[in-house]
Amino acid sequence: MPDRAAADIDGVPDEPATDTNAGWNVGDAFLAVSGVSHRFGATRVLDSVSVAMGRGEILCLLGPSGCGKSTLLRLIAGVEALQEGRIVLDEDELAGPGGDIPPEARAVGLLPQDYALFPHMSVLDNVCFGLHERSAADRRRHAMEALAGTGMAGFAAVFPHQLSGGEQQRVALARALAPRPRLLLLDEPFANLDVRLRARLREETLALLKRLGMTAVIVTHDAEEAMALGDRIALLERGRVRQADTPFNLYRSPADPVVAGFFGELNRLTAEVHGGAAATPFGPVPAPGFRDGERIEVLVRPESLVLDEACSGPGAAGTVAGRRFLGRFTRIDVRLLHSDPGEAELIQVHAAGFRPVESGRAVRLSCAPEDILVFPINGPE
Ligand code: ADP
Ligand code: MG
Known about the structure:
The chain is an alpha+beta fold. 21% of the residues lie in helices and 32% in strands. It has eight helices and 20 strands. Strands 6-7-8-3-9-10 form a six-stranded mixed β-sheet, sandwiched between helices. The two termini are 43 Å apart. The structure holds adenosine-5'-diphosphate and magnesium ion.
């Protein structure tokens, strides 16, 4: 099992930062993508994308299908020609106004979304394929080291069809790592695996990349996966970077409701601002920058709410309307007693584990003020 201290890499700074640009200036980054736009025919699929990362970091490109993640990765690898902008790796301009370095000279490893191992070659030959060392012995040694890194050294003589999906994935990762790239690009590397194997391979891959000190960009459409892997996450939407930050800041201080919605379900309410605070059912919440009397949007995650069955503490009074046990948590629907007309009728609560609270029971809901998100109504689309 990988030995990793989860607390070391969860992206939580000692002093929680609120700066939404926390991270790297393009100038001192190891990888800097700046102002990259891309069209296929008349369709613009990337629009002035800028992302930057430090050496040894893992950056997750997160976004819905079709938002341009693979295109950006292919531009960095050089298998797609850059049309506009600039890509710099360790002070080398890979592509930009000064010209393009061919993909094979970039020392960038790409594991494409639909990678395929060569079916007629052994695992070892598959991994040796991209290596350019002069002697066969050196190629073999580097390939074996890469296979050992992914736990596949014992399968060197085997052919791809004899491997399970997870084993093939490990070989493909070894093949991408064997040439010792300066930067590794992984396109949805775990998407084709079943849930349990996915979680395991994710942890193994993370431990391996950190052990190697590898700088990596990993594409995923799964927010939880991005949080599990990324030192930082760039959330892409319709070809634009919506927000780039640590997992902690994206979850706790999303720039807008769309970003917030990417990281799980939300209860949506409205509240009025008085004296710089929003009067929410869960108590006053600081709402700086809003006018007195302004109605604003209030978002609360189901997992942030605390259900008080004894009704002994403070909180919004309500009645349990339904419950469903979902394994990791119980989803409990609560109807608030004093909800504004036109509001979502039911508040969804995710209580850890099994929580056998009966329908009809009077409860109170509370939430830490810092877990309540406030935004202008009719904010960015
Ligand atoms: P993602 O990886 O985020 O799902 P892609 O980068 O693969 O998104 O694609 C972004 C958009 O560009 C999609 O609408 C896709 O259909 C389109 N696209 C991707 N590659 C090509 C191509 N070679 N020719 C034309 N359109 C393409
Ligand atoms: Mg893709």
